[in-house]
Specification:
The complex is a heterodimer of chains A (85) and B (88). Chain A is an all-beta fold. Helices cover 0% and strands 44% of the residues of chain A. Chain B contains two helices and eight strands, in the order βαβββββββα. By secondary structure, chain B is mostly beta strands. Chain B has a single domain, classed as Roll (SH3 type barrels), CATH 2.30.30.240. The chains are: A mainly beta (85), B mainly beta (88). β1 of chain A pairs antiparallel with β3 of chain B.
């Protein structure tokens, strides 16, 4: 689906399990590969990402679809701490 | 690998062809939302530009992204690749 890049700004980002991730502030463009490589996000859900800074860059390969919101793969669970003992 | 922030590109970036002609101002970039591939540039043409050789969409001209040869202070597009797009 064709999307205008400007329309991405300020869209909310959710995972496909319905967890809020953050808001799109910018996109990273790679001219050589002619593709968008990353999404710069702020207003991050601190329950999901344990970060100290303002924002994060999500790789665009995590994106499933983008229309009214940006939907990304449920990668959150992969970063969950697993206590073995 | 050259990476750019989209907001910087969309902030009144001028588009110039390889014959040193100023085509206009970059208004938007069209991408495939699923794959992230950049497909086209939407440019607000200069008032004195002959837009008949370009694909038009309303007041804008559409240039294929594979015509882009460099991006720094200007977006430089190959003059022939930008025009051949009218075959569509």
């Amino acid at each position: 689906m064709y999307t205008e890049l400007r329309s991405y700004f300020d869209r909310d980002i959710y995972t496909n399990t319905g967890i809020y991730v953050g808001k799109v502030v910018d996109l990273l463009i790679d001219v050589e590969s002619q593709s968008v490589t990353g999404i710069v996000a702020n207003n991050i859900n601190r329950d999901v990402f344990d970060i100290s800074g303002d924002g994060i860059i999500l790789p665009y390969r995590w994106v499933i679809s983008a229309a009214d919101i940006v939907l990304i793969r449920d990668v959150i669970r992969k970063f969950e701490r697993t206590d073995l003992d | 690998m050259t990476k750019y922030n989209a907001r910087n590109l969309l902030d009144n970036m001028k588009v110039m062809s390889t014959d040193a002609k100023e085509l206009g101002i970059l208004d938007n970039i069209l991408i495939d939302s699923r794959t992230g591939s950049i497909l086209e540039l939407k440019v607000l043409p200069n008032p004195d530009l002959d837009t008949s050789k370009y694909r038009r969409e309303g007041d804008y001209i559409i240039l294929p992204f594979n015509s882009v040869s460099a991006i720094k202070d200007y977006v430089i597009v190959d003059k022939d690749k930008a025009k051949t797009f009218i075959t569509k």
